[in-house]
Amino acid sequence: SLCAVYGPVDDSLKPDFLSELREVHNYCPGELLFCGDFNMIYQAQDKSNNRLNLSAMRRFRRTLDAIYGRG
């Protein structure tokens, strides 16, 4: 399955967005590919400046790791 996403810019909406990603994964049997603009940073080198939200990065990584069975 393919899921195109456009994540929220508002930081207060990002936890709900990550929960929705997990829900989509739970309802899609087999392989699932998320693509699009998550409006979140997976790792520091993905950012063009040094203003990082480390807790948001950790939440994003944990979500992706849970979905894709890493960690």
Folded structure, characterized:
The protein is of the alpha+beta class. It has 2 helices and 2 strands; from the N terminus they run βαβα. It has a two-stranded parallel sheet. The radius of gyration is 12 Å and the shape is globular. It starts with a strand and ends with a helix.
Q: Provide the residue-averaged pLDDT.
A: 91
Secondary-structure-derived class? alpha+beta
Q: SSE order, as H and E?
A: EHEH
What proportion strand?
A: 5-15%
Rg for CA atoms: 12 Å
Distance between the termini: 23 Å
Give the beta-strand count.
2
User: Which strands sit side by side, in order, in the main sheet?
Assistant: 1-2
The main pleated sheet reads as: 2 strands, parallel
Uncertain residue ranges: none
Bin the helical content: 40-55%
Question: Layout of helices and strands, plus pairs?
Answer:
Elements: E1 2-6, H1 14-27, E2 33-37, H2 54-68
Parallel strand pairs: 1-2
Helix pairs in contact: 1-2
What brief labels describe this structure?
single chain; 71 residues; alpha+beta; 14% strand
Short description:
The chain is an alpha+beta fold and 71 residues long. The chain contains two helices and two strands; from the N terminus they run βαβα.
